[in-house]
Each structure stands twice: as C-alpha cells, then as structure tokens.
C-alpha cells in the first residue's frame, strides 16, 4: 500500500454479510468507527489494516436489552468489566442494564454514579435503566434527562425485592413517563397471585424445584401483560414485555398490538430450549423468574418469533454464585443465570438446525431492539453510516458450552455441556476490535452509553386531561 494514503481504518474481506433482509458476500470498509462502504473487494478504499474473514459470517452485533451486571452492589456476582467482557465474547455489542443494583437506580444522583462506573469499566456499549416505582415517581423527568435508555417496572417480586407498585401507582407512573416518549420495560408477573401461592406451597411443605413453577403459573404473566397493556393504551406510554415465558401471554400481547398499543416483547433462549423436564437435573440452577415452563410452550414461542408477535431475543443475563444457586431448599436459591455470552451461539444453533431463518435472527437479535429503543439505524444495522458494531462468527464450528470457560463471574448455568454450532471469532464495537481471534483485545472504558444517540418517536400521551397531575391542579 506504499504511497497510497489509507482512507479506511479497516477493511474486512472475504466474509458473508448478514442483514435482516439478505446474506451476500461483501467487503466492509470502516472509518472513524462507522461503516464507510460495503461492496466488492475491488471497490474498497485503501486501508490502514485488513482482516481476512474468509468463511465467516458478519452479523450486526447483538443488542441485549435485558442484562443484570450487578455493579454497584453485588460485584461478587458480576461487574461492568466482567459482564461486558462476557457480552463481547458472545458477539453482543450493546447491553441495557437493569436497575436492581444497590442502591436501586431511582434518583438522578444514583444514575449518575452508575454511569461513572459503567463508563470506567465497560468494553461494549450500554444503556442504563432507571426503576419506575413509588421511589422514582418524583424523579421521572430528571432521570430521563440524566440519560436512561428506558424505565423498568417490577409488577412482581424478583431478585432484589424491589417493591411492586399497585395498579393505581402504575397508572400514575405511566402518566408521568408517557410525555418522555421513553419505553417502560415490565417484569410482568402479578405479585399478589404469586406471593399467595408461594406462601401456601411453603405451608404445604413443598421445597422441591418444581414448586417454583407452581408458585408462578402462566396466569400470573397473562394477567400482568393484559393489565399493563390496558394502562399503556390509556396513557400512551410505550411498553416492553420482558422475558415472555408462556404460550398464554401471546394472546394479550397480540391483542394489544392489534389495538395499536405501542408494545414490544422479548423472550430468551431458556424459554425456547429448556422446560420443566430439566428441573430434576438442574434444580436451583434453573430457577429463574418467570420460570422455565412446560415443553408445550416452546413451539408457540418459536412461532411468535417468526410471526412478529414477539419482537426480539434478550437474555435476562442474571448471574449468581454457585453457592447462591445450589441451596437445598428451592425458595432459597437466587433466581436467574448468565446468558449474555451464550445467546448468539444457542440461537445460531437453532438456525443451523433449520428452526429459524438467519436473516430473521438478525432482526430479532439486533434490528428490532435498536428500533424499539430508538437506536436504529446507528445501531442494529450493517449499512453505510451505521456504527461498525459487528459479530463475526464461524457458523459451521461445533463446540460445547463449558461453564468453567465463560467470562461472566458466575460460572454456573443450565447451558453447561450443551452442544452448539456457531463460534464467535471477532467482535468490533464502533470499529474497534474488542475480541479478536477469540482473544480479548479491547480496552476497559471503550464502551459508551447509547442514550446520547437515542431518538424515540414523538411522544403520544393520551387522556392527558385526566392524569393525576391534571386533576389535582384543578380548582373549583
Ligand atoms: C433477575 C436478577 O437476578 O436480577 N432474576 C431473574 O430470575 N430473572 C431479576 C429479573 O429479571 O426478574
Ligand atoms: Zn425480570
């Protein structure tokens, strides 16, 4: 290249580019962290560096809208460095972190402190959620201004025991959020039903793993989705249903979409690939909220991914230590397990098996999350001008997941030993290698908060004349 001024920082040759619409052989030129050109090799500009991706598939990096990186507060389970390293090794280039850290992200000050920690340690890009509850009601606007990707509302109890707002509080909270245009992600399980059932099961002496499922039957989620959709429709708040676990939730979700409610939904690999048949083997390790359910939920969930009822794949990466996951009484085992690093290989295995189309998978793992949270097309797309966030896989390589080798601090999951097809070779975040040849080469602090690039559509609050703020301001 002597004498020719490089105008690209990197050109990737020989790979197959995969988008939500097509897969085709092409070279990709990257400049200043962005995709500068996609095309035939001879059309590429001179570059400072090249990468040979012959035989590899180039996907937009995964966007996981549901992870728990535990920092601050539970850094023995995970921290921003280990969590984002795990993401990078899984081909995930953007993560949205949940607010159930200590202290709960409920005020602008707490949010700012978490931003500082993430900015110092993250290897990949990220968004931060703030909690939406009684404790944050007065801070909704300030939290929006402080840089959140969205709000998280806990309709039911889960790890961290964040109090669940009752329906009256939820309505007021949705009224408050609607004018911000930001999306509210919901842990949609109705607290009163499951608290009562858990109490009864404990009284009856049920301490076995399946008692967890029986304390949270699908009606818990169905009732919550239906109620949340009603409040979203009334207020115009945008909502997202986290971790859809059952076939029964699909009806209220589809009905809300048909009525024009701005509602999206996610499911995760564990609901698609594990079932109640796995509890005896994994015991507390498989305990997660909502629970992994009967095998007859799997096919309808796959179908919902294909037909668009469920919009995206997210992992609910929820790390805990082996001690916390293996206590003899099921009620004492912490809920959740790691997943951010395994999602892409697990789902690509399903693609290899013919369960899912590869382009559809790119829509579910990257494009739809970016669109739902206002990051598209800067994130979630392989097009000129987009951030060069790329996951480069050998789609043919077969291997087995080994918990001992994962990069999360939590090396215990129900994926241990599972045979998969599709191995991550390189991950780039804004044009910089974070993982290269299966080795961490990125730098701590490279990750940035994506709230700065977020553009949600214009807010569309409804019934604004009837909100709590509007009616209490009236004078007779
Ligand atoms: C999550 C956690 O551990 O933070 N656990 C879980 O079982 N899913 C919380 C949550 O997302 O509900
Ligand atoms: Zn949850």
Ions, cofactors and other bound molecules:
N-carbamoyl-L-aspartate, zinc ion
Any idea what the CATH superfamily of the largest domain is called? Answer: Metal-dependent hydrolases
Instruction: Classify the helix fraction into a percent range.
Output: 25-40%
CATH architecture of the largest domain: Alpha-Beta Barrel
- Terminal residue distance: 80 Å
- The tally of beta strands, per DSSP, is 19
Main sheet summary: 8 strands, parallel
Low-confidence stretches: none
**Large-scale geometry:** globular
In the CATH scheme, the class of the largest domain would be Alpha Beta
Going across the major beta sheet, what is the strand order?
A: 8-9-10-11-12-13-14-15
Number of domains as seen in the coordinates: 2
Query: If you consult CATH, what is the topology of the largest domain?
Result: TIM Barrel
Structural class: alpha/beta
Percent strand: 15-25%
Radius of gyration: 22 Å
What's the tally of helices?
15
The chain-level mean pLDDT equals: 97
């Amino acid at each position: 290249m002597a004498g020719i001024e490089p105008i690209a920082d990197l050109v990737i040759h020989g790979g197959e580019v995969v988008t939500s619409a097509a897969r085709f052989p092409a070279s990709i030129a990257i400049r200043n962290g962005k995709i500068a050109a996609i095309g035939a090799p001879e059309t590429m500009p001179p570059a400072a560096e090249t990468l040979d991706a012959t035989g590899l598939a180039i996907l937009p990096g995964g966007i996981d809208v549901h992870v728990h990186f535990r920092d601050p507060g539970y850094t023995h389970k995970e921290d921003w460095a280990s969590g984002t390293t795990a993401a990078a090794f899984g081909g995930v280039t953007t993560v949205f972190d949940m607010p159930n850290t200590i202290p709960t992200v409920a005020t602008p000050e707490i949010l700012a402190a978490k931003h500082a920690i993430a900015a110092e340690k993250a290897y990949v890009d990220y968004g931060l959620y703030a909690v939406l509850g009684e404790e944050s009601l007065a801070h909704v606007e300030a939290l929006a201004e402080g840089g959140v990707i969205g709000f998280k509302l806990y309709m039911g109890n889960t790890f961290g025991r964040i109090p669940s707002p009752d329906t009256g509080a939820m309505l007021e909270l949705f009224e408050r959020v609607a004018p911000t245009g930001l999306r509210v992600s919901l842990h949609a399980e109705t607290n009163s039903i499951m608290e009562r059932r858990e109490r009864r099961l404990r009284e009856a002496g049920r301490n076995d793993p399946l008692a967890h499922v029986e304390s949270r039957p699908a009606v818990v989620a169905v009732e919550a989705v239906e109620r949340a959709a009603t409040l979203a429709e009334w207020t115009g708040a945008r909502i997202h249903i986290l971790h859809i676990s059952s076939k029964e939730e699909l009806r209220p979700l589809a009905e809300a979409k048909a009525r024009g409610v701005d509602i999206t939904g996610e499911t995760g690999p564990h609901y698609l690939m594990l079932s109640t048949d796995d509890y005896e083997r994994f015991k507390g390790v498989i305990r997660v909220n909502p629970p992994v359910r009967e095998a007859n939920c799997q096919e309808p969930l796959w179908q919902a991914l294909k037909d668009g009822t469920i919009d995206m794949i997210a992992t609910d990466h929820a790390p805990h230590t082996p001690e916390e996951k293996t206590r003899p009484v099921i009620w004492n085992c912490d809920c959740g397990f790691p997943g951010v690093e395994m999602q892409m290989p697990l789902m690509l295995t399903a693609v290899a098996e013919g369960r899912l189309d590869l382009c559809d998978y790119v829509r579910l793992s990257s494009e739809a999350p970016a669109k739902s949270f206002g990051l598209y097309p800067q994130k979630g797309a392989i097009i000129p001008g987009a951030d060069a966030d790329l996951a480069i896989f050998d789609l043919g390589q077969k291997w087995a997941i080994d918990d001992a080798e994962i990069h999360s601090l939590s090396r215990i999951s129900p994926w241990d030993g599972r045979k998969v097809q599709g191995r991550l070779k390189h991950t780039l975040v804004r044009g910089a290698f974070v993982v290269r040849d299966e080795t961490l080469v990125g730098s701590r602090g490279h990750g940035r908060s994506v709230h700065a690039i977020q553009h949600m559509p214009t807010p569309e609050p409804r019934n604004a004349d009837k909100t709590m703020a509007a009616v209490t301001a009236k004078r007779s």
